[in-house]
Amino acid sequence: MTRKYIKKPIPIEAVQWDGTEEMAAEIASQEHFEGILDFTAGTFNGFYIKTLEGKMKVSPGDYVIKGIKGEYYPCKPDIFEITYDEVTN
Question: Is 82 within 8 Å of 27 (Cβ atoms)?
Answer without folding.
Answer: no
